[in-house]
C-alpha cells in the first residue's frame, strides 16, 4: 500500500465518520439556532435510535452477520428501518421538548440545559438496565461488495452511508429554505418576538426543530449500527461529543456549518490517527476546536442564533 | 447481562449459601468482580465457580460449625462501561470496614486489583484473585505501592502476564512461525502490562515489531489504526486488553486485515466477545488462559456437570480458577481450625499463604512469598466455529491448542 493509497483509505474512513457526525451536529444546531439551548439529551437519543434500529431489523428476522439481502428486499428493509427509527426518535425528541423543556422555557439560567443532561442520563440508564451492558451484535444485511479505488477499498456500506447522509441533508436544506414551516423556523431563529408578531406559531416551530433533529439522530444511530455492526448503551457520549464539536466548529446554529464541521472532524480523526497515533485523535480534534474558537469565535461559517438584544 | 435473579441478589447484597444454625459460626467472604459493563457475562460465569464451592462446603457440612457466606461487590460502573478503579477502591474500603469479612475473592480486572491492593494491605485482608493477571501487583519491586503494610495479601489462582505475554510471543514465533507483529492495547492496567510483556519478549526472540498503538475502549472506530496496520502488513496482531475494545477490534480487523493472525490474552477468552463480535469476525483469534487447562480429568468433568446443573450455564476456565480460589479459602479455614486457632483476618492471611492443594482442579496449588502460584502455566486456545454448539459459549467455541512455551 503506497502512502497515497493509505491517505485515500483514511479519507474514505474519515468521510464515513464525518457523515455520521454531521447528522448528529444538525440536531444540536437546529435546536440551538432556535432556542439557544444546548440539548445534551441528543447524545443518548442517538444511542436509543441505534437500539430502535436494532429491534426493527430483528423484526425482519435479521440478527447475526449471516443473513445478506440484495435488491428490493434490502431496499425495503432499510427504508422501513430508517422510517421506524426516525419516527420513533423524532417522537422521543418531541416528547422531551413538550413535557420537560417547554415548562422551563421562560426560566432563566441553565435549568433547561441541566434538564437535557438529566434526560440524557435517564435514557442511558434505561437502556443499560433493560438491555444490559454488553455490546450488542448489530445485523449487517448489506452484501459485502467492495470496489478498489487505487490501492484503497471502498465498501458498499460506505457508499450507502454517504448517499443516505447526503439525501437527508439535502432534504433538510430544502425544508429549511423552501417550505413555509422552514421559513418560520428561520424567522424564529432570527427574532422570535418579531416572528411571533408576524403570526408564526413558535411552539410548533420549536417542536419541529426537536422532531427533525432527533429524527436525524435516529438515522445516525441506524447508520452507526450498519457501519460498525454493534451497538451499546455507551456509544452516545463519544459520537455525541464529536457531533456537538462539529456543530460548534462549523458555527452553531448554522446548518451548512454543521455538515462542514462533521466532515472536518471525521477526516481529522482518521488522518490524524494515521499520522500521529490513534490515542491522540481526541487531542487533535479538540485542539483544532480550541484554535478555531480562539481565532473565529463564531465558528467556521459563522453563528446563526436568535438576536436577544 | 443483568438478570432478574442477579438484580435481586445484588439488591439483597448477599448470596444465600445455605441455612445457618444457631451454633454455627458464619465466615463471611467478600467477592468483587465486574458485574456491570462489557465483561459482565464473564463475571457471572466466574462468580458462579466461587458460589458453587461455598454452597457445596455449606450443604455438605464440610467444615463442622462453619457456614460460609459470600458478600458480593460490583466494581463495574455504568459510566465506565466496564470495571472502574474508583469503584473497586470503594469496594475494598467497604470490605475492610466490614469486620465480619475475613477473606475475599476477586477481582476480575488488574486495574481494579491495583486500586484495591493498597487498601486491603492496610486492612490486612487477604484476597484471592481467580482472574487478574497483571504482574506488578505481586511484584516485590512495587511492594511499597501494592502492599504498603509489608506482607503479601494478593494471592492468585492464575499465572501472571509476566508469563502470559512472553509465552504467547514464544508460541507465535515457534508454533506459528510469525516474524513480524503489530501490538495494540486498550489503555487499561491489564492491557498495557500484557502488551508490554509480550512486546519485550517478541523483541528478545527476534520478532520484528512494526508498531504499537493504544485503543480508547469507548471509541467506536478503529478503522484508522487498522488501515495503518494493513499498510505495514505484519504477520500477526497482538492485542492486550479486555472485551469492550476487543468486540469492535475483532469486527473491524476481520474486514480490514483479514489475513493477519490475531492473538490476545485471557481478555479475549470471553463470552462477551463471542456474543458482541460474533462469527465470522472472531474466527481464528488466538487467546490464552493464565492457568493449566486440564483436559480429560474426571474431577473436572464432574465439576462441569455440577456447575451446569446448578447454574444452567457452561463453566469456563475462570469458573474453575474461582472455584479453586474458594477452595483455597475453605482450606485455610480448615487449617486454622485444625491448629485450634481463631479465624481472624491476620490468621487467614497466614493460612492462605501456607495452603497446599496438591490435587485441585488446576493441579497442585501453592503460593510463593509474593502470593503468586509456584506453578505458572499458560494455555493457548483458538476460536473455531462449532455450529452444532451455542455460538456464544466459550467452552464450545474456544478450542485448546496447547501450552505456550515458557520464556
Keywords:
heterodimer, A: 309 residues, mainly alpha, ABC transporter involved in vitamin B12 uptake, BtuC, two-stranded antiparallel ribbon, two-stranded antiparallel sheet, 4 strands, B: 407 residues, alpha/beta, Rossmann fold, six-stranded mixed sheet, four-stranded parallel sheet, 14 helices, globular, disordered N terminus
Write up what this structure looks like:
The complex is a heterodimer of chains A (309) and B (407). With 309 residues, chain A is mainly alpha-helical. Helices cover 72% and strands 4% of the residues of chain A. Chain A has one domain: ABC transporter involved in vitamin B12 uptake, BtuC (Orthogonal Bundle). Chain A has helices at 3-35, 41-59, 71-101, 111-131, 156-178, 180-190, 192-197, 202-228, 235-250, 255-276, 281-295, and strands at residues 136-137, 146-149, 152-155, 230-231. In chain A, α1 crosses α9 (235-250) and α6 packs across α8. The model of chain A has no long low-confidence stretch (mean pLDDT 89). By secondary structure, chain B is of the alpha/beta class. Chain B has 2 domains: 4-159 and 296-365, Rossmann fold (3-Layer(aba) Sandwich); 161-289 and 379-403, Rossmann fold. Chain B has a 6-stranded mixed beta sheet with strand order 1-3-2-4-5-6. A 4-stranded parallel beta sheet of chain B has the order 8-7-9-10, sandwiched between helices. The radius of gyration of chain B is 20 Å and the shape is globular. The relative contact order of chain B is 0.14. The model of chain B is unreliable at 1-13 (pLDDT under 50). The chains are: A mainly alpha (309), B alpha/beta (407). The A-B interface holds A 1, 5-6, 9-10, 13, 17, 64-66, 124-125, 128-129, 132-137, 155, 224, 228-230, 232-235, 237-239, 269-271, 273-274, 277-279, 281-282 and B 1-2, 36-38, 40-41, 76, 78, 81, 187, 213-216, 218-225, 227-228, 230-231, 233, 243-244, 247-248, 251-252, 255, 272, 275-281.
